[in-house]
Prior knowledge:
Elements: H1 12-26, H2 31-35, E1 42-46, E2 49-53, E3 62-69, E4 72-78, E5 84-85, E6 94-104, E7 107-118, E8 120-121, E9 126-131, E10 134-138, E11 145-150, E12 153-159, E13 164-166, E14 175-184, E15 190-191, E16 196-202, E17 213-217, E18 220-224, E19 235-242, E20 245-252, E21 256-258, H3 260-263, E22 267-277, E23 280-281, E24 285-292, E25 295-297
Parallel strand pairs: 8-15
Antiparallel strand pairs: 1-2, 2-5, 3-4, 3-6, 6-7, 9-10, 10-13, 11-12, 11-14, 14-16, 17-18, 18-21, 19-20, 19-22, 22-23, 22-24, 24-25
Amino acid sequence: MKTLGKTKLYPAAALAVLIVLIAAALFPVSSAAFAAAPLNAEIIEQNGRIFLQWDAVDGADSYEIEAVSEYGSASRQTADASPTEIEDLFTLGGEYSVTVTAFSDGEALAADTAVYGYVVTLSSPADLRYSDGALRWTAVPGATGYSVTVNGIPLGSTAADETEFDLSGILAVTGEYTAAVTTLGDGAFNLDSPAAELSFAFSAPPLSPYDIALGKSGESYIASWPPMTDESPEGYVYKVETDGERLFCGITEENHADVTAYVAEDGVYVLSVACVRDGIRGAFFSRSFTVTGGEIVL
């Protein structure tokens, strides 16, 4: 007959202590971690400046502050107790998660996060200039586009990646103009900029002659057009083309030119003429003519 061994029973309190001792041996926790307290991070504004404040953590020898947004993240270390200014961690307007972490000998003790909506007025476009019939400027970070006015009249807007606005065909009269370009924001965290302004001179191209004719003088073919005296032209540019091929392009101070060398053979010819003033050529006026058997057919 077998005799059962005795089972040793522990009171409940003793068993609880034993469990704690075993857990401490298996999962050691530093004394610093026991000393850590909630940080209670909070962002405050004072006199136009932005600060992060938090409760000091016993045993902490440094703190790391990190600001994270859709634009990326920025962080820095500080040994000072809060509050500390944090605006340098923000780049553009947006919603930022700002986390402060307490450290002791490089070991994180506790962390807390505060959320802040940072609102900023975007910069005005820089290096605004006018050249070759267009306004140009330097891109602004955070822009959703740019609006353009000339002499106070809205002309339209561009996309964020377009830093040029063509004024060709918009300006028609010689004179002084004032352009204004505004950086457009998202209407929430990034506000529209003040306008950048530029004054510039515009010289309108001369009007083109309103007619051109081809006639014969003896055996010569003469192209002629009305003198554009109101435009005070320095001269006229004229050209002869056939089947899309340019046969000749020249300049003359007269309101006529001998084109015999280019239209003597039978064919369809396009004659074009434009005024030149102050070194600027106006638009061409063109007409086509047919030459058959030495005769001109309109």
